[in-house]
Amino acid sequence: MYEQRIRVPFIIKWPDQLEKKATVFDEPKNVNLAIPPTILSAFGISMPDYFKNLPQQDNSFGGMAISETVMHPEKNDYVISIVSKEFKYVMFAEIDWGKYRIKNIKREELYPVDQATGDVVEDSSIIQDSPDIREKMRKTSKLFAERNLNFQKLYPIRKFIRGGG
After folding, report:
1. Global model pTM greater than 0.90
2. 21 located within any domain
3. Strand ordering across the sheet containing 77-83
């Protein structure tokens, strides 16, 4: 559920252009931090300065794969999914786009990660049985969302669209 951009193998092969060594990560990682620099450097292009300010670059979120989705923009529905080595947490929230903040949390889900296989066990949420983990993951999600919303305030998406302001 909501893992379109996380927990997916990523391989780049470009003979004679990229280094000939493989990098394997044994913990969750935001691959979207590795893709742009790899591709741009292959073309001799340096990373834009704003990339360094992405919330994913913050070491506070190391060891986690994070995915955000705006489900229904007209309803301000927002979903954030965080996967660590131990758990997958999903928060469904309403965003106040005018104030760039989470207005309210609608629902939360928490699932364990099978340590033998690395698979998320999504049979049923353990959110009610794990209040300490829930609180830690909620706090991390809110912090990430807050930093990402502030990033969007500083770097509005229209700046990156061709012909945008």
Report:
1. no
2. no
3. 65-72, 77-83, 87-96, 101-112
